[in-house]
Specification:
There is one protein chain. Helices cover 72% and strands 0% of the residues. It has two domains: 54 residues, Homeodomain-like (Arc Repressor Mutant, subunit A, Orthogonal Bundle); 109 residues, Tetracycline Repressor, domain 2 (Orthogonal Bundle). The protein starts with a helix and ends in a 7-residue tail after the last helix. It contains eleven helices and no strands. The protein is an all-alpha fold.
């Protein structure tokens, strides 16, 4: 009887408590993978990035990487986006012209440094890497084009822009020159350039100045 009582009194010695939830550990691993992918991209270029190298730097298995991403292009793009999305947000001032102008300024300033070098390298690698090109279009370009279109649509609703504005062409015209300077490098990418570009294009669109 005493032996039974002792066993009842001391359950913790024989039966450990419940396991801690796994989500925090999984999230830490995911962040480590994204950081490793972006560090390898910036330090060695996309051609040198492999799932094996990402896993080794992050301290996880290849299976853990593939649990979240189908290929190296997808994880590299997510690693890149995890560092840049907060640096080039779209503002919402209530005026389409000012929203686009501010975003173009932030984008040109970002493209003048590390982010620009990475984007240019990704575009170049995408010419021979279809998976990377698709990831770049779907995860970086398409998302930002959709945000720009939304701002222009709000401008149309507020009467700032013409109702017959071709949104796809307008986005190309606004941002095309920025990518041109990024890739060709014939002139600097700075705030003065982006402000002048926005002024010229919105004047051509017949937009009303909110001032």
């Amino acid at each position: 009887m005493r032996a039974v009582e002792r066993a009842v009194e001391q359950p913790a010695e024989n039966h450990p408590g419940p396991r801690p939830p796994g989500r925090p550990r999984s999230e830490r691993a995911r962040r480590a993978i994204l950081q490793a992918a972006n560090e390898l991209l910036e330090g060695e270029g996309f051609a040198a990035v492999t799932v094996e190298a990402i896993a080794e730097r992050a301290g996880v298995s290849k299976a853990t990487v593939y649990r979240w991403w189908p290929n190296r292009a997808a994880v590299v793009m997510d690693g890149f986006l995890s560092t840049v999305s907060s640096e080039v947000p779209f503002p919402h001032t209530g005026h389409a012209r000012e929203d686009i102008r501010l975003h173009m300024r932030r984008l040109t300033e970002a493209f003048g440094g590390r982010i620009g070098r990475t984007v240019a390298a990704l575009i170049a690698e995408g010419q021979t890497e279809p998976e990377l090109a698709e990831a770049l279009r779907s995860r970086w370009l398409s998302v930002r084009r959709a945000e720009a279109r939304e701002i222009l649509e709000l401008g149309i609703e507020r009467g700032e822009l013409s109702e017959d504005l071709d949104l796809e062409v307008a986005v190309d015209v606004l941002y095309g020159p920025i990518y041109y300077r990024l890739l060709v490098g014939h002139a600097p990418l700075d705030g003065d350039f982006s402000d002048a570009l926005a002024d010229h294009i919105f004047a051509g669109l017949g937009a009303r100045d909110p001032a």
